[in-house]
Amino acid sequence: MEGRGTHSYLPDPRNAAILIDVNGEHFAREEAKVSVFDSGFMLGDGVWEGIRLHRGRLAFLDRHLDRLYRGAKAIAMDIGVDRAELERRLYAVLDANGMDDGGAHLRLMVTRGIRSTPYQDPRVVVTPATIVIIPEWKEPAPETATRMLDLATVHVRRGYPDVQDPMLNSHSKLNCITACIQATQAGADEGLMLDPHGFVATCNSTHFFIVRDGEVWTSSGDYCLDGITRGVVLEIARAAGIPTFERNFSLTHVYGADEAFTTGTFAGVAPVGTVDGRVLDKERGPMVERLQQLYLERIGADVSARERPLRQSSGQA
């Protein structure tokens, strides 16, 4: 097993021979490269999405592309291709790798392009945006749905939107990486991050929810990423008649919670056992189990209603 916590997965030897899409062309893994002058490598200047393949369809693709194009527009970056072309590329690289059912995860990355010199001003960019799609055979570890995660509150905060807006799914992830490092050094699976006011915001790579007296709470959303899975879980909980709130709450509320869980594209809904050494639950609780089932049903409904583009030739270089 590789990875940790919500990103634990079983290694798959097929990943050594995957084809990767770089600007619309397919390259073998060892040949897929970008310039050292690329904006993403040089400055973390770009936006990205992680997308799962389920029953031959990319789950919640419209929501992922909405977020990608909104983020690019917010940072004044032209992706350079329309949504139809981007969707075609996503499915074409899946087809080229024989990924036509499930068990695959895509990382879609768009950076501002190549700069003429190492400098932050976008006016020195001399090429269109760089678009890279990395597909991998990657399934969550079987125990992910039931293994109780250990979280540790970290000193790194999710900041104000006028510093670096945490709602942007940008390549600039050092804030979250620093939180991840601190959590790892504390022996935890994820870092629980607070907002500037001391309320719970999110985890370093997932969103965080608690359950109290039959109610589901998550943060106000003011200091966290506009999470796709977070939004879907809020929708399915409300549709099921579960009292669900986006609100400020503190670690005191967390330590006294009946259940807690994280959400993310890769692992879906994952139960939390401890936070800062306080035991919330020793096994998956009934609310988490119910939401996991509702989430699987929603994924199934989404992909069943989704058209799949016609197969394309691989375009391998």
Question: How would you briefly describe this protein structure?
Answer:
With 317 residues, the protein is an alpha+beta fold. 27% of the residues lie in helices and 25% in strands. α6 (228-239) crosses α8 (286-304).
Question: Can you describe what's shown?
Answer:
The strands form 2 sheets. Strands 7, 8, 9, 10, 11, 12, 13, 14 and 15 form a 9-stranded mixed β-sheet that branches. A 6-stranded antiparallel β-sheet has the order 2-1-6-5-3-4. Helix 6 packs across helix 8. The protein is built from 8 helices and 15 strands. The longest helix has 19 residues, at 286-304. By secondary structure, it is of the alpha+beta class.
Radius of gyration, in Å, reads 20 Å
Largest sheet: 9 strands, mixed
The amount of helix comes to 25-40%
How far do the termini sit from each other?
Answer: 32 Å
Average pLDDT over all residues: 94
Primary descriptors:
single chain, 317 residues, alpha+beta, nine-stranded mixed sheet, 15 strands, globular
